[in-house]
Amino acid sequence: MLQTLIKIGQQKSQNLGEWDDVLDWPKIETENKKGEKITNYVLPIIFDLDESKIKLGELGEYDDTKSVQRLFNIKIQGGNNKAIYTCAEFGGLEQIRKTFFGATDSATVSQFTEAIDKGFPQLKDTDLFETLEAIFGLRSVFESQFMTDGKIDVKKILVQPKEEVAAESQKIKLNPSEKIVLVVAQVVWSEKGWTSPTYFKNIDGYIDFLKAKFPRGESNSAVTSEPKLCYATGDFKESVGELNIKARYNINKMFVSTTVNYASGFDGSAFPKNYQVGSEIQKYLEQGSKHLLEKYKTSIAGIDHCIIPQLFSKDESDLESTLATISKKSDLLFQYKKLEEVVADLNYNRSEDFPYWITFLAFESDGNFFKTINVIKDVSRTHFEKMIEIFVNTHLEMTKIEGLNWQNVMSAGEGNPLTFNLYTVYNLIPIRKDKVKKNEALGLFKQLLEKRPIAKSQLFGYFKELVLCHWYERYGSYTNIYGKNPFDFAIRNGVFQYLALFKVIQQLNLFNDMEETELQEVENIPEQAELSENQQKIETFFAKMSYTPSQKAMFYLGRAVSSVAIEQYKKGYESKPVLAKLNYNGMQKSEIVRLKNDLYDKMRQFKLHGYMEPIFKKFTEHFNENQWSMKPDEALFYILSGYSFN
After folding, report:
1. Where are the alpha helices (DSSP H) in 84-231?
2. Is it the case that residue 593 has pLDDT exceeding 90?
3. How many Cα atoms occupy the beta-carbon half-sphere of 137 within 13 Å?
4. Which end of the chain, C or N, has fewer beta carbons within 10 A?
């Protein structure tokens, strides 16, 4: 990982300006949904200390190559850092308010003033400090012009549709193809010689503050010029000292020296030696981490992961192209995607600019700390690409199996078709809110990506929890289960997506061999000419899903449940009372026999002999009561597969 961070840092530092490491570039749109060009603007907000007024200046067109550096749009620091932002994104006007007027009504000074007063008192005699104090006097003016009920009100800045405004109004009117991306503070104060709006970068003390807040040079007094071993590179270098990462939101913050529990194997007095790196390498590590965290994260099982490629030491691939490729391919596997998008992207840069291994690093951070909570490591390129292809091909194969209604199973609403991937699998494994850190879905994905054996009983256990959630409507207890589908459809979707997952795992050869013995004991398909059209569908389904005799028995029992449920619904029993006869914690052999007898009684009650007697015959053919060994969770699953079919 360190080698990757260093290499990224080297590449990103080649054309890095003096302040680029602390500046932030806003995300902008250049075209709307109609393909029309969007013009982006910078809006000046002018503190006129001569007239004790706050004015909106004229819009200036945003230039991505110049505006950020010229206006000093400082990246939001987070944590306990005070707001010091004289430029901010339009959606972040609250940062401007805190910078100049404090965070609360009870504040007596601005946060920028507070930052200087507490951290850099040598700057209290500058024009910057004096100007900040003077601007704070305009607090009530700012609140009346730009706030409603204690919050920034954009309606007081922009003209709303159909709104009539007076000619003297300061409100900004934008066309649909125009947007404000940045707001920048300016000052007018004749006493200081600023008779026209002046940027803060031109005010005495501002650049000095930035240099003190974000040191440009080496600040580690322990660094010496004598060559020492840099542990990050393994080379002897000059200017080697203890790793001293300034930014708190940084991957390198995993290497801690202040929290003993996380470094219990180290001699506390030897940290400067154990963590020693070259000063230049340290800058690369910081820049590499910053770039990855800003641009190359993906959500896996609802948790942010940083994408870290691992290359051979002599690999000269362009890392930006490599990261773009991984990010695009990761989206195919982990994010919501429509089928046409996946098919179009499947061969994106195949085997070009692609690393030999990938690590996905999950983390927690509030800006004050950086804690690793999961690592999916050493995922090979071939396995990663193979997984994507298998998921896509499985999706396509499932669409061809009659009786599954796969298009409806894989739908998030009308016109919103899903593609089967790990994004959809995540929604099959209930994650309890009170145990959110024990993320079973994330554990399964780690097994899949790291090619670790998977027990099928593990998956049946997940399915049982899913069914219980839907049956008892426990949606408030889980973070990732959609609760708006009726029970029948929720179970249908779950059953067939789990069957698709079984096929994926089979093709990856990751099922535990001990549990897969019976799975291979499949029967020959009868001659199609001997079968009815519906039975042909069932037999084809069995063959595609590799059903064993025991699984077929449960399938037919589920078909019998379905027949009774349909009849009950027709007779006005909308809740389908027969469903209450299933034990959703798993079906033991005795419960299977009892269910079969109850269903037989219902057949006679509703006079369904013509429908159900052939089903019971099939059940009897495959159900070996004397040698029954199927586990309860598995039995429940295959009963519900029969219930959901067709």
Report:
1. 93-101, 111-119, 127-136, 139-146, 206-213
2. yes
3. 10
4. C
Cα(453)–Cα(511) distance, integer angstroms: 6
Backbone torsion region of residue 78, taken as left when φ is above 0, otherwise alpha when ψ lies between -120 and 50, otherwise beta:
left
What is the rounded (10 degree) CA torsion for 293, 298, 303, 304? 0
Q: In this predicted structure, which of 117-121, 171-175, 371-375, 515-519 has the lowest mean pLDDT?
A: 515-519
CB 623 within 8 A of CB 591: no
- Residue holding tokens 């005070």? 82
Structure tokens at 450: 């790291």
| Cα–Cα nearest to 579, from 588, 590, 589, 567 | 567
pLDDT at residue 587, rounded to an integer: 98
Contacts of 615 (CB under 8 A, 6+ apart): 556, 559, 560, 563
Structure tokens at 281: 């390498």
d(CA 348, CA 370): 33
Please state, for a pLDDT cut of 90, what percent of the chain lies above it.
56
Q: Is 71 left (phi over 0), alpha (psi -120 to 50) or beta?
A: alpha
Q: Do 248 and 367 contact (CB within 8 A), yes or no?
A: yes
Could you tell me which residues come within 8 angstroms of residue 617 by beta carbon, excluding any fewer than 6 positions away? Answer: none
In this structure, are residues 437 and 447 in contact, taking their beta carbons and an 8 Å threshold?
Answer: no
3-state SS, 435-500, equals HCCCCHHHHHHHHHHCCCCECHHHHHHHHHHHHHHHHHCCHHHECCCCCCCCHHHHHHHHHHHHHH
Task: Report the pLDDT averaged over residues 366-387.
Answer: 86
Report residue 268's pLDDT band, with 50, 70 and 90 as the boundaries: low
3-state secondary structure of 181: strand
Tell how far CA 443 is from the center of its chain.
Answer: 16
What integer pLDDT is reported at residue 520 of this predicted model? 44
CA dist 250 and 5 (Å) reads 11
Distance CA 360, CA 366 (A): 19
Confirm if 84 and 111 have CB atoms less than 8 A apart.
Answer: yes
Sorted by sequence, the CB contacts under 8 Å of residue 431 that are 6+ apart come out as 301, 302, 439, 440, 441, 478, 479, 480
The number of residues making up the chain comes to 646
Helix axes of 632-644 and 549-570: crossing angle, nearest 10 degrees = 50
Q: What is the pLDDT of residues 195-235, one digit of tens each?
A: 999 999 999 999 999 988 887 654 444 555 688 899 888 88
Using the structure block, give the residue that is written with the tokens 């003993």.
260
Q: 3-class DSSP state for residue 48? A: strand
- Beta carbons of 113 and 211 less than 8 angstroms apart: no
User: Are the C-beta atoms of residues 135 and 49 closer than 8 Å to each other?
Assistant: yes
More confident of the two residues 144 and 257: 144
CA 431 and chain centroid, separation: 15
* Position 117, amino acid: D
Delimit the domains of the chain by residue range: 2-18+216-292, 39-213, 296-516, 518-644
Query: 58-62: long-range contacts at Cβ-Cβ below 8 A with a sequence spacing of 24 or more?
Result: 59/172, 59/180, 62/28, 62/181, 62/182
Token pair in block for residue 454: 């998977």
Quickly count: other Cβ atoms within 10 Å of residue 271's Cβ. 17
Q: State yes or no: pLDDT of 314 exceeds 90.
A: no
Burial of residue 416 (number of CB atoms within 10 Å: 0-12, 13-18, 19+): exposed
